[in-house]
């Protein structure tokens, strides 16, 4: 799969709230970090814990891709997220996510909020 297809599979899995499919989109040593560079999940177990912590609690979760660019191994997209529950419902929000894809897997995800 090309990088756009990999990221689209991730979004589809996210919207289906399928933790196993989500985790399967990432490499075994993938890194997730925020816009200040803080790593909040690294590796399969941490990524599973991150998504597993809210996907099952958010029955109406949906991420809509508003725009997307693809350059080399990077896919950057603006996403509008609704239905997120983190203990309590979170107001809808937009975020820019940058995904680096190598060998058909996401190796890095940077959330710019």
In brief:
By secondary structure, the protein is an alpha+beta fold.
Could you describe the 3D structure shown?
With 113 residues, the protein is α+β, with helices and mostly antiparallel strands. The protein is 27% helix and 48% strand. It is built from 3 helices and 8 strands. The protein has a 6-stranded mixed β-sheet. A hairpin with a 2-residue loop joins strand 3 and strand 4. It is globular and about 35 Å long. The termini are far apart.
Q: Roughly how many Å is the radius of gyration? A: 13 Å
How do the strands of the widest beta sheet line up side by side?
A: 2-1-8-7-4-3
Give the structural class.
Answer: alpha+beta
Number of discrete helical segments: 3
Helix and strand pattern: HHEEHEEEEEE
The proportion of strand residues reads: over 45%
Unreliable spans: none
Largest sheet properties: 6 strands, mixed
Give the termini separation. 28 Å
The total strand number stands at: 8
Query: Overall mean pLDDT score?
Result: 97
Principal-axes geometry comes out as: globular
Helix content: 25-40%
């Amino acid at each position: 799969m090309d990088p756009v297809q990999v990221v689209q599979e991730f979004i589809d899995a996210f919207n289906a709230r399928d933790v196993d499919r989500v985790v399967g989109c990432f490499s075994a040593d993938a890194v997730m970090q925020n816009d200040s560079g803080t790593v909040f999940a690294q590796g399969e177990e941490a990524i599973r814990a991150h998504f597993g912590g809210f996907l099952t609690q958010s029955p109406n979760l949906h991420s809509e891709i508003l725009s997307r660019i693809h350059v080399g191994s990077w896919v950057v997209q603006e996403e509008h997220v609704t239905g997120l529950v983190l203990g309590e419902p979170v107001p809808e929000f937009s975020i820019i996510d940058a995904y680096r894809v190598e060998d058909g897997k996401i190796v890095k995800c940077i959330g710019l909020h």
